[in-house]
Every structure is written in C-alpha cells, then in structure tokens.
Design goal:
Layout (H helix, E strand, L loop, with lengths): L5 H16 L2 E11 L2 E10 L8 H18 L7 E5 L10 H5 L5 E6 L4 E9 L3 E6 L2 E6 L3 E6 L8
Parallel strand pairs: 2-3
Antiparallel strand pairs: 1-2, 4-5, 4-8, 5-6, 6-7
C-alpha cells in the first residue's frame, strides 16, 4: 500500500530541478498498483513543446532518480521505478497540459455529456479556447470530464 500522496509532493520538489538539468520538465510522480506490483511512475517531457525525449535522456533521468527514491522512500515495501513520457494521448488535466496542446486537435467530453473535437487556440489557468468546426468555443476546465489530444496522421494540405 502506498504512503499518502504528500510524500510524492516532496519527491516532485526534489526531482523537478534534476529533470530541468537534463532539459526535461517533470510532469508528475504517480503511484499505481498493477498485477500486484507497486509502480512509481516519474513522468517527464521535453521543456520545449513539440520536442521529443530520447531514450538516453530517460536513462539519465532514471539513474539520477534512483538514489533520491532511496532517500525519500515514498512507498512502503518493494516497488518498480518507471521513468517515462506522458504519451501522445495522455489525459489533459492541468492548465499546463492544455497550454502544451496549442495548435493541436483535442477531444473533450464535458460533465454534461457534450462531446467536442477542436483545435486548441489558447489556454489560460481557467479555460481553453478550441476552434470547433470554425467556431471559437471556450471550455472551462471545471466543466471537463475528460480531455485527450487526438493523434493526427498525414498532412492537411
């Protein structure tokens, strides 16, 4: 069983500057249990929106994280450490996640069951503006049930 979440907050504070030193931004540290195994996921992404993170940067980050995990000891018992990127279709949860999607297509399901697909035109701390079929549509984050980027293939030309 995982220790309370505040231990992950302390871990995030320690890991953020380390990630920055590798040209990465710490997205989150989460604990999950899969197939009976406790996993601590350290999720990082490139500081520059649209840039990719190579396997060497992930390996460097993993090596730097291990001693801090031993020191902070964020979970009881054994765990598996996973350092990864959020993936192309990660859920958009924070204003920063939305801001990184400017110019990209997203699918949104609102709490009232409305479903929208549009391109993010702008994002603030409280809402995003999507271009939905040519119409600017403001989406308040408090009304979002689930939102994910849409993977686009090919060109629009």
């Amino acid at each position: 069983m995982a220790k309370p979440q505040h231990h992950f907050e302390a871990l995030e504070e320690r890991l953020a500057p380390i990630a920055s030193g590798f040209g990465l931004e710490l997205d989150s540290v989460i604990g999950v249990k899969e197939s009976g195994m406790q996993i601590v996921r350290v999720i990082v992404e490139a500081i520059e929106p649209g840039a990719s993170v190579d396997s060497e940067a992930l390996a460097d980050m993993s090596r730097a994280v291990s001693p801090i995990m031993d020191e902070v000891d964020p979970v009881d018992g054994e765990y598996f450490l996973e350092v990864s990127t959020p993936g192309a279709e990660r859920e958009l949860v924070t204003p920063r996640h939305w801001g990184r999607q400017i110019g990209r297509l997203v699918a949104v399901k609102l709490k009232d069951a409305t479903k929208l697909v549009g391109r993010v035109e702008s994002a603030t701390d409280f809402h995003a503006v999507l271009n939905v079929d040519g119409t600017p549509t403001t989406i308040e984050y408090t009304q979002v049930k689930k939102a994910r980027p849409r993977v686009e293939f090919g060109s629009e030309e």
